[in-house]
Amino acid sequence: MIFGRTERGKPPVEPVTLKILVAGGFGVGKTTLVGAVSEIRPLRTEELLTEAGRPVDDTSGVEGKHTTTVAMDFGRITLREDLVLYLFGTPGQERFWFMWDELSEGSLGAVVLADTRRLEDCFAALDYFERRSIPFVVGVNCFEGADRYPVDAVRQALDLDEDVPLMLCDARDRSSVKEVLIEVVQHAMAYGAKRRQSVTS
Amino acid sequence: MTRGRTTSPAQHRLDLIAVVIAESHEDDSEADQTLSPEHVDIVGLCRDAPQSVAELAAELDLPIGVIRVLIGDLVDGELVHVSRPVPPAELVDESILRDVISGLRAL
């Protein structure tokens, strides 16, 4: 998608759009990762919630408040004039998972970002994608000051299936994030091929 | 703005990455009295370049649900049309995935 005015009279190219989700616990670097590769500053879109959050949200004192906002950060990568990839950071709180259902529909795959200091924060996301058979890779965000663990140890701690790729990454680093995204697509390809095989055989 | 509507009739849910394209024949949306300023904004943005639903919502700072209703109006009025994203069944299309990988490599 190219900015700037398209010539009048010439129909604009209608790009094919794809999306990859970026999930993980609060503060694990989802928006940083999106920002590292996005050609636009990560944009924020919001959805107003009405009743959905009521049992959970403590609105005492603000009884006039009937809506909550769920924010999603997203970025865009134009791969070709007619091929655009969107990255969506999923809302962190678990009670917004109905938003995930909408986001994950038609998604190419997902990145689950993990922080070795708070591995348990990403369990919910792993569970979610496993259950819905959405191909995902785990990216262990290497925070400065966090201990580095061998990949195998992290894999074991997360109890990952052996065919789920796990890689160390730096969410701030463009080339590192690029590698992670390529891995997602490759994994999605392998995953699709495997599924087709199991259907036909 | 949506006059109380939360869904657009006859319009199935627009995906966040569905792309909205301005109809090229339409050049006078500003003159159409039935449109709100937000409708006009959407058409204007899409005329510059096709925009995804998510981008329009972010750009105009409106909730997704509102944007969906407004886009539904514009589709009904034939001011824009919407191209749907790749359906999930075709996501396994290897040639598209290969293009994505080579595109990412080339970044």
Task: Give the topology.
The complex is a heterodimer of chains A (201) and B (107).
Chain A (H helix, E strand, L loop, with lengths): L15 E9 L5 H8 L5 E7 L18 E13 L2 E7 L7 H8 L4 E6 L8 H9 L4 E6 L9 H8 L7 E4 L4 H27 L1
Parallel strand pairs in A: 1-4, 1-5, 5-6, 6-7
Antiparallel strand pairs in A: 2-3, 3-4
Helix pairs in contact in A: 1-5
Chain B lengths: L18 E4 L14 H12 L2 E2 H8 L3 H13 L3 E4 L10 H12 L2
Antiparallel strand pairs in B: 1-2, 1-3
Structure description:
The complex is a heterodimer of chains A (201) and B (107). Chain A has 201 residues and is α/β, with parallel strands linked by helices. Chain A has helices at 30-37, 97-104, 123-131, 151-158, 174-200, and strands at residues 16-24, 43-49, 68-80, 83-89, 109-114, 136-141, 166-169. Chain A has a single domain (16-200), classed as P-loop containing nucleotide triphosphate hydrolases (Rossmann fold, 3-Layer(aba) Sandwich), CATH 3.40.50.300. Chain A has a seven-stranded mixed beta sheet with strand order 2-3-4-1-5-6-7, with helices on both faces. In chain A, helix 1 (30-37) crosses helix 5. By secondary structure, chain B is mainly alpha-helical. In chain B, helix 2 crosses helix 3 (64-76). Chain B has one domain. The model of chain B has no long low-confidence stretch (mean pLDDT 84). Chain B is elongated and about 45 Å long. Chain B has four helices and three strands, in the order βαβααβα. The longest helix of chain B is centred in the middle third of the chain and has 13 residues, at 64-76. The chains are: A alpha/beta (201), B mainly alpha (107). Chains A and B meet through strand 1, strand 2, strand 3, strand 4 and helix 5 of A and strand 2, helix 2, helix 3 and helix 4 of B.
